[in-house]
Amino acid sequence: MSDAIKFMLNNEMRAVSGLPPTTTILQYLRLQERLTGTKEGCAEGDCGACTVIVGKLENGKMAYEAINACIVFLPTLDGRHLITVENLGMNAVQKAMVSCHGSQCGFCTPGFVMSLTACMNNHENASDENIQDAISGNLCRCTGYRPILDAARQANKSQERHLKTDMEALEGLQRARMFAYEHGGRQFFSPHTPEDLAEVCAQHPGATLLGGGTDVGLWVTKRHKHLETVIYTGNVAALREVKKTAAGLEIGGAVSYAHAFESLAAYDPSMEVLLRRFASTQIRNLGTVGGNIANGSPIGDGPPPLIALGARLVLRSKSGVREIPLEEFFIAYGKQAREKGEFVEKIIVPAKPENVLFRVYKISKRFDQDISAVCAAFAIELRDGKVASARIAFGGMAGTPKRATHAEKSLTGKPWSEEAVRGAMSEMEKDYQPLTDMRASAGYRMQVAQNLLYRCFVESAQPETETRVYGYGD
Ligand SMILES: Cc1cc2nc3c(=O)[nH]c(=O)nc-3n(C[C@H](O)[C@H](O)[C@H](O)COP(=O)(O)OP(=O)(O)OC[C@H]3O[C@@H](n4cnc5c(N)ncnc54)[C@H](O)[C@@H]3O)c2cc1C
Ligand code: FES
Ligand code: FES
Q1: Do the beta carbons of residue 434 and residue 448 sit within 8 Å?
Q2: What is the CATH number of domain 5-85+165-232?
């Protein structure tokens, strides 16, 4: 039996059926609702022209997030409030965009307005860093950004907060059981518990699991892939929790990077920088840590630091639960240790002991919204000036995220010295045979990987550089 997709659009009720489950929010808005303020620029989450705000009930309160409508499937809106630029009226952000000349051709403007409105709503007093992060996923080819930043600062001063939801009406849309939607033989399931998720995965072993859809959405919009059955993890409450335990951290398989940000950033200032440089605010609001691992990408930014920290992956299916070291999940390019019907239930990240030197570095051409050419993570356990153990993991250096086992071995037991570090840098050539592609040449990748170990060493000897924010051009 198929339910209609029930949600609020700009505070009005909607019950939608008769559309394929992979219809994007953007297609729905522009083609069904004829709300054309939300623009299509790239249809792959890169430009922000399609930014909308989604409000959801979290522990009895509204949580509002800016997201990319172009890659998000409509059924994920069930039980939520979709807010578009048409709903804002002349709010403080729009007024400031006019008075500061933040708009020229205007194509990007609705997206910027939505990103900034969400930012102003979510921060009592947004800092420049908050503002820059909020628009890190919005491109403008006309203004040069300065007038947009001026507009944001001006709007921020007004302290006007705009987002409102009829919470009683939204509460009425919350479901007690799994949401199931079907159109033309294609199905979408949104279970609420891990047990139901395991059951529906067992019934549909060939189904596509959907977290934030920041990879899966593009399979549809760019590769025109036809997804027969989709199982959404975003309403499984137990998978959306971040728990701090005595042993460290447990991150549920459907926790977004935005939600995990604070807990992960606490590991090291370099981790905070990496997370700020992970895609954009819109993508971090959607993209999950579990999806970033499960996609098996060799250039994902999550796996290298998590592997270096000794994270373990908990996989669950109807037949049980198993736990593996994260690095063992990545078998070869495009091949992961996930059985049919299994899903990532959680990621367990151990606490970082005091005597472990931990650093992570992302090398990409731009600060924001860019995929890594190389991502390096180091966890060096030091005792009495010697390396007691080393965990070094790289992205972008092989067909999978991979540990530098030769380099690790060469460091272990030696004094943490320039000589030992230079020896380990040479050993890295046995660990990796990187590829040349559009992001970097093989030679560049190898040199940068070796130099990042050296940088980690130099920074450890100069503690005043430790908390430096690695900025543009690093
Ligand atoms: C514009 C843009 C910028 C990006 N920038 C970055 C970046 O800077 N760094 C980076 O690392 N990535 C980046 N990405 C890639 C992407 O955002 C991340 O990989 C993200 O974390 C994927 O999570 P998701 O929840 O959106 O995954 P989805 O797209 O929902 O799923 C990805 C894969 O994981 C599977 N899956 C999802 N959840 C589970 C689960 N619980 N159990 C088992 N399998 C599951 C899906 O079936 C699919 O195979 C970017 C993407 C875009 C569009
Ligand atoms: S259209 Fe470019 S991010 Fe959606
Ligand atoms: S005003 Fe033209 S793209 Fe921004």
Answers
A1: no
A2: 3.10.20.30
Percent of the chain surpassing pLDDT 90? 93
**Nearest-5° Cα angle at 329, 403 to 238:** 120
pLDDT at 473: 39
What is residue 470's three-state secondary structure?
coil
Beta bridge partners, 344, equal: 315
**Does the C-beta of 110 come closer than 6 Å to ligand 2?**
no
The amino acid occupying position 121 is: N
| Alpha-carbon gap, residue 425 to 395, rounded angstroms | 16
Question: How far is Cα 34 from Cα 37, in angstroms, rounded to an integer?
Answer: 9
In this structure, which amino acid lies at residue 20? P
Q: Is the domain covering 89-158 a CATH 3.30.1240.10 domain?
A: no
pLDDT for residue 1: 59
Portions of the chain given CATH number 3.30.465.10: 237-350
CATH 1.10.150.120 residue ranges of the chain are 89-158
Neighbours of 244 (CB within 10 A): 11
d(CA 88, CA 131): 19
Residue nearest to atom 3 of ligand 3 (CA): 140
Which ligand has its closest atom nearest to the C-alpha of 329? 1
237-350 topology per CATH: 3.30.465
Q: Compute the distance from residue 145 Cα to the ligand 1 centre, in Å.
A: 28
Look up residue 172 and give its two tokens. 């009425």
Span 356-465 CATH architecture: 2-Layer Sandwich (3.30)
- Every domain of the chain with CATH number 3.10.20.30 lies at 5-85+165-232
User: How many CA atoms lie within 13 Å of 242's alpha carbon, on the beta-carbon side?
Assistant: 16
Ligand 1 pocket, Cβ-based, cut-off 6 angstroms: 44-46, 208-216, 218, 233, 253-254, 278-279, 283, 286-288, 290-292, 294-295, 300-302, 343-344, 369, 371
The Cα–Cα gap between 400 and 336 comes to: 9
DSSP state of 434: P
The pLDDT tens digits of the residues spanning 305-361 come to: 999 999 999 999 999 999 999 999 999 999 999 999 999 999 999 999 999 999 999
pLDDT tens for each residue of 48-80: 999 999 999 998 999 999 999 999 999 999 999
DSSP codes of every residue in 329-393: GEEETTEES--TT-EEEEEEEEPPPTTEEEEEEEE-SSSSS---SEEEEEEEEEETTEEEEEEEE
